[in-house]
Amino acid sequence: MPRSVNAVASRRRRKKILKAAKGYFGARKNVLTVAKNAVDKAMGYAYRDRRSKKRAFRRLWIARINAGARLNGISYSKLMYQLGQKNIDLNRKVLADLAMHHPDAFAAVVKQVL
Question: What is the largest CA-CA distance in the chain?
């Protein structure tokens, strides 16, 4: 009886890896073992950086809110504390957008907490 190998599944598995490696430089795009390592590394970076992107944006929002708050005579930490005390539920993303693109609206928010 001939040996049975599941060629369909093997080919599909290899094609999936090589498709993910499309656009890579040199052997990384067409040699399976090299491509597999490159794709694994890339997936690890992608997973890590989806999380670090959230941290980076939060830092950016805080910097923008702080700059806008100081133009209105209050520090970032005091502003955020007062927003919590007054039950004004605006997240950092919205506050940063107001501080950057709508300074009059941001000044009105600051006036509410003072």
Answer: 86
Domain of residue 32, residue span? 7-113
In a domain, 63, yes or no: yes
- Look up residue 49 and give its two tokens: 């950086």
pTM, to two decimals: 0.80
pLDDT in tens, 67-91: 999 999 999 999 999 999 999 999 9
Buried residues in 36-53 as b, exposed as e (16+ CB within 10 A): bebbeeeeeeeeeeeeee
Give the CA angle between residues 44, 46, 47 to the nearest 5°: 65
